[in-house]
Amino acid sequence: MLNLNVNNRDALEDIIITEDTILKIDLDNCSKEINIDVMDDMCLEVLEMDNHTSNVINYNLRSNAQVIVNKLARDCSDTTNVTLSGDNASIKYYSNIMNFDDNIYTFKTLHKANCTSSDIYNYCVNFTNSSFKFLIDGKIERETAECYCNQDNKIIDMANGDNAICPNLLVDNDMINANHSAYIGKFKKDIVFYMQSRGLSKRDCDFLLIKGFLLGKMQLDDRTLEEYTNFVQDNVEW
Amino acid sequence: MLKIDDLSVEVDERDILKNFEMSIGDGEIHALMGPNGTGKSTLSKVIMGCPDYVLKSGKIYFNGEDITDLEVDERSRKGIFLSMQSPISIEGVSNSEFLRTALNARSSEPIQLFDFIKMMESNMQELDIKNDIVHKPINEGSSGGERKKNEVLQIKVLKPTLIILDEVDSGLDVDSLKVVCNNINKYREENPKVSILIITHYARILEYIKPDYVHVMVDGKIVKTGDYDLALEIDKTGYTEWVNL
To answer: Is pLDDT at A174 greater than 70 in this prediction?
Structure first.
């Protein structure tokens, strides 16, 4: 397994994945365009931690390519474009964002080949009264078949933010499975009551719930989980 | 230990508890029985401090201290534990980090991981709970019985002095009910000053945890108090006599 690191200091060119790879992306206060091309039969695991970014990241997955992205970000106005261009390509994408300023996060998935699969989870915790938007598109072209396109979008509002989720599924083929969901709201009152009834302060409850919401779905080893937990802890403002 | 004085509570502008009075001494076991919708679960949540309910009048005292205005977590740290009728699942929060955080909230010294694991292992064994539960999100994918056992696990770890069991027998098969009740009895034997308030519809659970007092609650008030025989009488005759008062 090849290990690659990308950060602000790198002059980012196209990244071509020709062997199974773990790619660590660590970007801070930047606006870049990154093209990631995953060749036939390759597996790519991306661990991405961003802070104040407005990057454009383009993924192209060729036949049988498998990609999993675990992304944790603060104040993110990125655009992610995923093209599933080869048969049987699949991607699992977990975007988890802590929001404090006005941001728009855009995610576009394009299914261009048969039996492709996209499983996209876009989660955000908005801590302030700022504006946060998810613009989420999934497109399945007419000539493709037996695709799976899933989009799960959630925003937890910790203050009184101006939040919106705009999910679109553009499907031009009957032989597919596509679904999307959107939720904007607070943590449920009965959950907070349950946790507080065991002696946890409101602050402890919020931290555990935020951490669980942002990191709970991601598939991380213990070391990365600790790193991501520290990132949440360092960035949570009360 | 617990004294409830002239408590009136409303929800959505409807009176649920009406000048409710109750007193539970150290080490006493009380059972509160009554038909559906009479205010039993409301009472348990009001004692715990649930903010959904509006207190129109009255006071709640715990060990002589007025706790009427305390937050939920403060009441818990003082020693009150509410075992809920339908324990909820919490996505993304593991039992382990939840309980360690709850324990640390009670102590000035954080509990060491090794001590915590040892404590959990012995308690889980006694409750016949699989070890992997500690790493799983709270109650996620658990059956009703497993959830109730998890509530008792929390009791054994957090060591409250007043335990409120809100329909702990619902959703439990006979074997699980025995395990749950045996563990509660054992905890009480080890901590004789612990008091218990059992909220139930049926006398069945009282065969396993014998109450000192049985109260019948109808329409937001206690209408009759007796001993265990009262529970047996209710099992035979139901609540009709009191509902029609």
So the answer is: yes
Whether the pLDDT of residue B13 is over 90: the answer is no
Rounded to the nearest 10 degrees, what angle do helices A189-196 and A202-215 cross at? 120
Average model confidence (pLDDT) across chain B: 93
Enumerate the residues of chain A whose CB falls inside 8 A of the CB of residue B137: 212, 216
| Fold (topology level) of B2-243 | Rossmann fold (3.40.50)
Q: What is the C-alpha to C-alpha distance for residues A120 and B17, in angstroms, rounded to an integer?
A: 48
Q: Mind telling me how many Å the CA of A180 is from chain B's nearest CA?
A: 19
Interface residue ranges in chain A relative to chain B, Cβ cutoff 8 Å: 189-191, 193-202, 204, 208-209, 211-213, 215-217
CA distance B66 to B63: 9
Least reliable range by pLDDT among A113-127, B19-33, B125-139, B149-163: B125-139
- Minimal CA separation from A214 to chain B, in Å: 8
ipTM of the complex as predicted: 0.95
Q: In whole angstroms, what is the distance from residue A63 CA to residue A90 CA? A: 9
Select the residue of A197, A202, A213 nearest B76 (Cβ to Cβ).
A197
State how far the alpha carbon of A203 is from the alpha carbons of A195, A199, B50, in Å.
Answer: 11, 11, 17
**What is the 3-state secondary structure of chain A?**
CEEEEEECCCCCCCEEECCCEEEEEEEEEECCEEEEEECCCCEEEEEEEEEEECCEEEEEECCCCEEEEEEEEEEECCEEEEEECCCCCEEEEEEEEEECCCEEEEEEEEECCCCCEEEEEEEEEECCCCEEEEEEEEEECCCCCCCEEEEEEEEEECCCCEEEEEEEEEECCCCCEEEEEEEEECCCHHHHHHHHCCCCCHHHHHHHHHHHHHHCCCCCCHHHHHHHHHHHHHHCCC
String of b and e for A222-231 (b: at least 16 CB within 10 Å)?
Answer: eebeeebbeb
Tell me the one-letter amino acid at B169. D
